[in-house]
Amino acid sequence: MSPIQDEIAAVAARLVVEEGLDFGSAKRKALSHLDAPERSPLPCNDALERAIEDYIAVFCPDEQARELHALRLLAARWMRRLEAFKPFLSGAVWSGIATRRSDIYLQLFCEDSKMAEIELINQDIRFSPRRVKGLLGDPVDALSIHAWSEELGEDIGVHLVVYDLDDLRRAPRSDHRSRPMRGNLRAVEQLIEASTA
Q1: Does domain 63-196 fall into CATH 1.10.1740?
Q2: Which among 68, 65, 76, 43 is positioned nearest to 147, based on CA atoms?
Q3: Where are the domains of the chain?
């Protein structure tokens, strides 16, 4: 990476951790903070993720560990509630770089995408629907809710990204660092157990 990309990654990492920005917004805001030219090369997501890991290790390792634990507990609760849809945890809460400002992303796999909406209605859960880019690049439904975290004492955004059952077999399993891209309930429970050991 070039020196400007390193600088952008460092500033963007702080913005992700402290303000809860997504990677794209954090990079653009970092560019502005540094008064760098708009056409400056941006760091890749992998470089930004490593910068976030470094930032957490230096500035908030204990606090972030507690917050991550709380987010994973909340994710596991929702995974149990939605167990019929074969839920998987993904994103920052799965990868371990989340803070209390991070949202939870659950991937649901079902025969009919409307089944997840019907289940939320049956459970009297308010949600906001939208379309997002899916695992395979095509648009999929996402249902966003607010879920109370007892441990954090605040509402956390939980996004349920709904896929066809067939997508579970076709979806990529690991990222560019050969790490699993998602985890089922048992995998999340193992992470929770490891953090309390």
Answers
A1: no
A2: 76
A3: 3-59, 63-196
